[in-house]
Write a structure and sequence with these properties.
Layout: E1 5-8, H1 15-24, E2 30-31, H2 43-49, E3 57-60, H3 71-86, E4 89-94, H4 97-119, H5 126-129, H6 136-147, H7 164-176, H8 186-191, H9 196-204, H10 213-220, E5 223-226, H11 232-241, H12 244-252, H13 270-279, H14 281-288
Parallel strand pairs: 1-3, 1-4, 2-3, 4-5
Helix pairs in contact: 1-12, 4-6, 11-12, 13-14
């Protein structure tokens, strides 16, 4: 490795496999959660901003970069984002935007079913009835129960594959009502994190995203790859940029393989593909840059 790297953990795009491979191949990296801009003596922060520091890897979710609590921390955050997003080699895993949204929908369902199985019985639904509607599980339950209005929660919610496209339309409309539920825009919010407040506001008022994605990508030159379909170019890039052992371990530890083998292919969901692309072209545009 001959450069500083920010390897973004895009949710639902194989990040667990990346983390496992980095550790098993003994690649030293800095988790984004370890960078504390509110602590002036934070070792991880000071390493990243040190202009003489070379050949480091920061890995993790963009949103794990801690919120500043003071004016001084805000200035440190600006400096950190400038380094990570504009002066470092970004690696961004992606997947087809519709497949990504499907993954989130089924993830919500699985989390809700597991919660009910662990906490409820047919004679005791207190855990459901007392859910805080603003909590993560409260939001998950609200979404899935509305998608499956005539199903018995105790028996477990089922998203019938015959109605996958209808379910996607419903899921999309429900998460759009809550700005705390924006998992569908993983690529956009992960890659364009410095513009997150602008993007979220534009999403909230149903306005097209105005950040020039093409200009950002052309100027910062991130390496974007399809985490579900690893190309030979991606193999060569990751092997040479990080290490051959890392790439070998990444393929070995690749998680959620079954999630990508649904009965319906993305291409079968033509109506939703067209709708989603017209509504959030930003996600498709970033994905189109993937190798």
């Amino acid at each position: 490795m001959k450069q500083n790297i920010f390897y973004v953990h895009t949710p639902k795009c194989g990040g667990t496999s990346v983390s496992n491979a980095l550790q098993s191949s003994k690649v030293n990296f800095i988790p984004t959660s370890a960078i504390n801009i509110n602590d002036i003596n934070n070792e991880a922060y000071n390493l990243v901003i040190d202009p003489t520091s070379k050949n480091w890897i920061v890995f993790g979710h963009s949103f794990h970069l801690i919120t500043p609590l003071t004016k001084g921390a805000l200035e440190r955050q600006k400096k950190l984002l400038e380094i990570l997003f504009f002066n470092t080699q970004i690696i961004l895993p992606t997947r087809h935007p519709v497949d990504l949204l499907r993954s989130w929908m089924h993830y919500y369902k699985t989390r809700v079913n597991n919660f009910i199985s662990d906490n409820c019985t047919s004679s005791n639904l207190e855990a459901i009835n007392t859910l805080n509607p603003t909590s993560k599980m409260g939001r998950f339950y609200s979404i899935i129960s509305q998608l499956c209005p005539n199903q018995d929660p105790i028996k477990g919610f089922i998203l019938d594959v015959k109605y996958e496209q209808d379910n996607l339309f419903g899921f999309f409309s429900l998460i759009l009502k809550d700005e705390n539920l924006v998992p569908a825009w993983n690529h956009t919010l992960s890659l364009l994190y410095p513009y997150r407040f602008q993007i979220l506001e534009e999403l909230r008022i149903n306005k097209p995203i105005t950040v020039d994605i093409d200009q950002f990508i052309e100027s910062t030159k991130p390496f974007i790859y399809d985490s579900q379909n690893i190309s030979s170019l991606t193999r060569e890039y990751l092997s040479s940029t990080i290490s051959e052992q890392f790439y070998a371990d990444l393929i070995k530890t690749k998680q959620n393989v079954s999630q990508g083998k649904r009965a319906l292919k993305v291409t079968d969901l033509k109506s939703f593909n067209q709708f989603y692309n017209s509504r959030f072209n930003c996600e498709f545009k970033i994905y189109q840059y993937s190798h």
